[in-house]
TrEMBL record:
GO terms for molecular function: ferrous iron binding; oxidoreductase activity, acting on single donors with incorporation of molecular oxygen, incorporation of two atoms of oxygen; zinc ion binding. Residues 37-252 form the Extradiol ring-cleavage dioxygenase class III enzyme subunit B domain. Pfam families: LigB. Belongs to the DODA-type extradiol aromatic ring-opening dioxygenase family. CDD domains: 45_DOPA_Dioxygenase. Signal peptide: none annotated. The keyword Zinc applies. It comes from Pedobacter rhizosphaerae. It comes from the Bacteria. This is Aromatic ring-opening dioxygenase, catalytic subunit, LigB family.
Length: 274
């Protein structure tokens, strides 16, 4: 069964609930933002299978900061934070509104660290390449929460738990990164599919730990061996997964989609919590 067929199968059986799901999405190449492929199609299908959110909050690998910040402007700009891609990708604008009132509420929810209101960042490609497929009319408010590189994975997990209540308010919280992400070892010969042995082994270990609810081992990923350090040479693409896991309720189920390796050293594996 293809990854898209698997996705469509489990989304047909999503429970009816007032609690918005929370999702980790492997975003991969910025080109997924303009290409119609199995990954972007699954994002579009996902939006149709869940309730329409009142707002979308994204924890993107590409807003890595000293301190924790939330975008708080009326209309966040579309950031083209990449190089070497076709002009068509740079021409994309995603004019979704922000949500200043919601942004102002989030610092009151987080007690483990200070959260600053940001009026400069906008929506980076870890956000708009996904949400433009999910909500192409750009009519849902979108915010970003930054990842503080001075904080431990445990602290990021705590922050996620503190903002769990957003899910009860109709906010869709997305983590955007990649479970296995080592661009230095990228293979162009495998760019359309395929993973190194170590990448596939580590991706499967991550999936098993997620399925078994062993969040502590995932938080302490550096103790998982040399394959984990190959999979996560730097943590910014992995930490959005920690946010998604931190927002999981005790009785909620886990499903995987887009479970595919590309480029040898990158996996698109995504996680739906519902």
């Amino acid at each position: 069964m293809s990854t898209l067929s698997q996705f469509r199968h489990f989304t047909q059986h999503l429970p009816k609930t007032d609690l918005m799901p929370t999702i980790f999405i492997g975003h991969g190449s910025p080109m997924n933002g303009i290409e119609h492929n199995e990954f972007s199609q699954s994002w579009a299908d996902l939006a149709k299978s869940i309730p329409v959110p009142k707002a979308v909050l994204v924890v993107s690998a590409h807003w890595y900061t000293h301190g924790t910040f939330i975008t708080a402007m009326d209309f966040p700009s579309t950031i083209h934070d990449f190089g070497g891609f076709p002009q068509a990708l740079f021409d994309v604008q995603y004019p979704a509104p922000g949500a200043p009132a919601l942004a102002a509420e989030i610092p009151t929810m987080v007690h483990s660290t200070a959260v600053g209101l940001d009026h400069d960042w906008g929506l980076d490609h870890g956000t708009w390449t996904i949400v433009r497929h999910m909500y192409p009319e750009a009519n849902i408010p979108v915010l970003q929460l930054s990842i503080d590189y001075t904080q431990s994975p445990e602290r990021h997990y705590e922050i996620a738990k503190e903002i769990y209540a957003l899910r009860k308010k109709g906010v869709l919280v997305l983590g955007s990164g990649n479970m296995v992400h080592n661009l230095r070892m990228l293979s162009w010969e495998m760019i359309n599919g395929g993973g190194y042995d170590w990448a596939m082994e580590m991706n499967n270990r991550f999936k098993n730990l997620i399925a078994n609810g062993d969040h502590q081992s995932l938080i302490n990923y550096r103790n998982l061996g040399k394959e984990a350090l190959l999979a996560i040479p730097t943590p910014e693409h992995y930490l959005p997964l920690i946010y998604t896991l931190g927002m999981k309720g005790d009785q909620e189920e886990i499903s995987f989609f887009n479970d595919k390796a590309v480029g040898g050293s990158l996996t698109m594996t995504s996680v739906l919590v519902s």
